[in-house]
Amino acid sequence: MPILGIGVDILYLPRLINLLNRRGSEAFATKILSSQELRTFQLLAEQHGEDKTAKITQFLGVRWAVKEAAYKALYPIRPTWKEVTYSSFNGATGVKPTLVYRPVHDDVGPANKLHVSVSHDGDYIYAQVIVEST
Q: Which DSSP category does 81 fall into?
């Protein structure tokens, strides 16, 4: 399986916090999240009520970093924010994080399989995406 691209991104969380303070987390989420991610975001916001800032920021930050890394790895394909969907590690089932690219148009090329790794520590989130063809 040939590797088509590798992309990385590092996000400084205070930068995202400033953006969310100016524009609002709901507006930002609507702009960058796929429909599946947006449903998860809305459930997360409902669950955490008033004490949601850190969870919301991390949720959005991880997806932003992953999508930036995916954009770099998929080049010259130019995905939109909503065409890339990230699902985090599921502790209950042991399923690894997944990244799916669902292009609106079928004529975008051979990016068949995406691998993703995310790490976060303190004020930073790091994401790496590898794209391969099958």
A: G
Enter the tokens of residue 11.
């996000």
CB half-sphere exposure, 47, CA atoms < 13 A: 9
**Which helix (H) or strand (E) segment is 21 a member of?**
helix 13-23
Give the per-residue pLDDT at 74: 92
Please give the helix or strand (H or E) that residue 128 lies within, else none: strand 124-132
3-class secondary structure, 109: coil
Which residue in the block uniquely carries the two structure tokens 């790490």? 119
Residue among 114, 119, 109 at smallest CA distance from 129: 114
Q: In 13-31, which positions are buried (b, 16+ CB within 10 angstroms) versus exposed (e)?
A: beebbeebeeeebeebbee
pLDDT band at 105 (very low <50, low <70, confident <90, very high): confident
